[in-house]
């Protein structure tokens, strides 16, 4: 069995503040270590459940957060940014049997997690076919474009709820929940234990129930925090200006969406 893991940091145990996710800040290193521990726990559980090949994509920031020297021998870790539009899903193809998400978080504009965002902090919110688009939604449609089911997600309570709405068969592990600018954090030992149990359950479960249906048409709409950013990005090929802060793109091709996204929100 071959699995793909896309890992982020904001949804890992204990993370509650933006500084804790930025490499130049003194508090960052401990949370990068936690991200590594959660990835290792997921890999070990998946391996015990039958996965003999696991590819992990470090998906946060410059993609050099996970300690490569702590990866099990059956794991390949993809570090750094290739420049490919898949970004957090770079490396996915039709050969995989399933996708797992670790450390995921609520999308831009969501009040249920203090550092909610989608890819960057430039958007107030993003809509895809009329629904708020999270990184989970973005990446799950990329997985769907390769016919790979999405089996598992760990992260804050809100992104777990949204993941289940999009993928009814997915197994989730809640690591925390937010109230205003506060975050109620679950103990790391409990998070690690639940990730191990959840991954085993997900990998041995019914994968057909985790297959995401790819829409036939896409309407991608970005509302920016800064009208000047909105004006500049309105010149991206195919982008239409909706109002002072909002642009949209319509297409039948998923690759058009991921390519636009990697340019217009960065």
From TrEMBL:
Residue numbers annotated as active site: 117
Alphabetized Gene3D superfamilies for the sequence: Dipeptide transport protein (3.30.1360.130)
Residue positions binding Zn(2+) 2: 8, 60, 105, 135
Keywords: Metal-binding, Zinc
CDD domains registered for this protein in UniProt: DAP_dppA_3 (cd08770)
Residues binding Zn(2+) 1: 8, 10
Xref: InterPro entries: DppA_N, Peptidase_M55, Peptidase_M55_sf
One Gene Ontology MF term: metal ion binding
Keyword Signal: no
Protein name in UniProt: M55 family metallopeptidase
Source organism of this protein record: Blautia segnis
């Amino acid at each position: 069995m071959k699995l793909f893991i896309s890992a982020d940091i904001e949804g890992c145990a204990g993370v509650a503040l933006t500084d804790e996710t930025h490499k130049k800040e003194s508090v960052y290193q401990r949370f990068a270590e936690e991200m590594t521990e959660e990835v290792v726990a997921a890999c070990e559980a998946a391996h015990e459940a039958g996965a003999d090949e696991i590819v992990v994509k470090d998906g946060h920031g410059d993609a050099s957060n996970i300690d490569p020297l702590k990866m099990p021998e059956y794991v390949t870790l993809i570090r750094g940014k290739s420049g490919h539009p898949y970004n957090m899903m770079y490396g996915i193809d039709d050969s995989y049997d399933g996708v797992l998400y670790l450390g995921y978080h609520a999308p831009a504009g969501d009040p249920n997690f203090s550092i909610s965002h989608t890819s960057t902090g430039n958007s107030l919110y993003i809509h895809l076919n009329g629904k708020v688009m999270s990184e989970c939604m973005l990446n799950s449609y990329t997985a769907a474009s390769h016919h790979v089911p999405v089996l598992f997600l760990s992260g804050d309570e809100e992104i777990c709820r949204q993941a289940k709405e999009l993928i009814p068969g997915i197994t989730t592990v809640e690591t925390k929940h937010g109230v205003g600018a506060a975050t109620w954090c679950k103990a790391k030992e409990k998070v690690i234990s639940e990730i191990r149990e959840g991954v085993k359950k997900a990998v041995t479960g019914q994968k057909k129930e985790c297959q995401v249906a790819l829409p036939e048409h896409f309407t991608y709409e970005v509302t920016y925090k800064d009208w000047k950013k909105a004006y500049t990005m309105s010149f991206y090929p195919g982008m239409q200006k909706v109002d002072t802060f909002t642009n949209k793109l319509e297409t039948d091709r998923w690759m058009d969406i991921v390519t636009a996204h990697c340019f217009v929100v960065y």
